[in-house]
Design brief:
The complex is a heterodimer of chains A (118) and B (108). Chain A has 118 residues and is mostly beta strands. Chain A contains no helices and eleven strands. Classes of the chains: A mainly beta (118), B mainly beta (108).
């Protein structure tokens, strides 16, 4: 069974930092691009970042460029999102998602809530 | 960047109804269009990819169609489990992939 399990969310003050993790299992982690998608409370889905299978290329939505860094450790089957300079508008549930072969996001984690507030 | 606009934002329907949701793109692209279903407090679930290909395990009452700038998701006979929010997403132009704003299907 394919599983993606996020962790690391919580309450952080504006300007603070947080590192999210996503542990993958039940599939060959090194064979798939991975992504972070977020959803602000009561709002729609927003793609945040993608990373290639080997971590060689990374892509970000404009609103997080220079503040967030996506990375992966294929030896640990893990995906990460390092977030710094956090703002109130970054408050959201952050989902880890697997990018399927020519099919969008075919598997998702349960999400982890990040709240940016003083 | 390609912008995706879904309509309607909310749809009220009854069990057994045929339901259609539309997603329009700001510019034409290939058929790299996906549809997701999301229930409250849960992660989205992939329903359809490449505009019309049903993901494994998804009931056949769901179907997708369209090309260019207009795409549709159809539920042929709405079931109680289908009351949820649906999102379209284009994934044709790496690296920026945008979602539609969502369509909430409510009980009439």
């Amino acid at each position: 069974e394919i599983q993606l399990v996020e962790s690391g969310g919580g309450l952080v003050q504006p300007g603070g930092s947080l590192r999210l993790s996503c542990a993958g299992s039940g599939f060959t982690f090194t064979s798939f691009r991975m992504s972070w998608v977020r959803q602000a409370p009561g709002k729609g889905l927003e793609w945040v970042a993608n990373i290639e299978e080997d971590g060689s290329e990374k892509f970000y939505v404009d609103s997080v460029k220079g503040r967030f860094t996506i990375s992966r450790d294929n030896a640990k089957n893990s995906l990460y999102l390092q977030m710094s300079g956090l703002r109130a508008e970054d408050t959201a549930v952050y989902f880890c998602a697997r990018i399927g072969y020519d099919k969008g996001f075919d598997n998702w984690g349960q999400g982890t809530l990040v709240t940016v507030s003083s | 960047d390609i912008q995706m606009t879904q309509s309607p934002s909310t749809l009220s329907a009854s069990v057994g109804d045929r339901v259609t949701i539309t997603c329009r793109a700001s510019q034409s692209f290939t058929n790299r269009l996906a549809w997701y279903q999301q229930k409250p407090g849960k992660a989205p679930k992939l329903l359809i990819y490449k505009a019309s290909t049903l993901e494994s395990g998804v009931p056949s009452r769901f179907s997708g169609s369209g090309s260019g700038t207009e795409f549709t998701l159809t539920i042929s006979s709405l079931q109680p489990d289908d009351f949820a929010t649906y999102f379209c997403q284009h994934y044709s132009s790496h690296p920026t992939w945008t979602f539609g704003q969502g369509t909430k299907v409510e009980i009439k």
